[in-house]
Amino acid sequence: MASQYLVTGRRRAPGFERLLLLALVLMLGACAAKGRGAVPPGTMQPDQFLFERGNALLKEKKWLTAREFFKQLTETYTQSPHRPDAKLAIGDTYLGEGNTEALVLAQNEFREFLSFYPTNPRADYAQYKIAMTYFRQMRAPQRDQTETRDTIRELQILVARYPNSQLMPEVKAKLREAKDRLSEADYQVGVFYYRQRWFPGAIDRLSTLIKTDPEYTTRDGAYFYLGEALVKVGRPAEALPYFERLVAEFQQSEHLEDTHKRIETLKSANAGNAKLPASKPAAGAAAPAVATSGTAPAHTPAPPATPAATPVGEGGQSAAGTPVVSPR
Description:
CATH class of the domain at 45-180: Mainly Alpha
CATH architecture of the domain at 45-180: Alpha Horseshoe
CATH superfamily of the domain at 45-180: Tetratricopeptide repeat domain
Order of helices and strands: HHHHHHHHHHHH
Largest sheet: none
């Protein structure tokens, strides 16, 4: 009789396949329970347990494990009051990872939250985090500024939709930082034109910068080089107000000493009814090529075709490894 229940040769014990299948199912179930947040038997509020456990892991920056607890909550307890916050937390785990793929997934989670819960009290948080997925990808001023523009757009949406958000101080600080990054790209181009003695291009670029972003943090440099460029082309009356604005708005600036001297010179020349000689580019000189992602305004004098500029890397170096000298 015992031999009937032993595997001998090609014969197997009766029900062997069923027992093997049952063992496999139990093993997979145990693995799944271990991978996801296993809720202790008898837990009165399993959704709350999953949420609290996920938050604890989130604070420890254990992104993958925390995400499993939040996902189990959102997928299993669809009517839980913690489900909206768990949805946001899933996005936070992706944002915490920080790589390009994770940032895309984070953005999807936050956009889904706004689609599912448009009137939720934390909708402003979701909008802010969408902006941060772009903010984390912003590049140096010399590089393409697409992500910077996307950041500004999403933050401006937040300001318009949620004017009373408690996040507003941080939102405005990030918005200013993003705008500065965009303006810095134009500023560097304007200073480059000035130093190459292409004064019309410098005037156009810097004056446009001041008009489009009057709160640019380091606009003292824009005032100074714009004023100097106007003096060089024989337009001192237009230059003087920019020098005076620099003195009025900035108590500390690397350009203050030179600005005071220039104001004194301009006022003395005006008192003597003397016209300062114009400094023009050399005859036949073309606008210099510049490595920048920005596009010059339509009324900038169009330069002739020039060789492609040397690409600039993230660390402020050219592709060949040559350091890029700051314009200031």
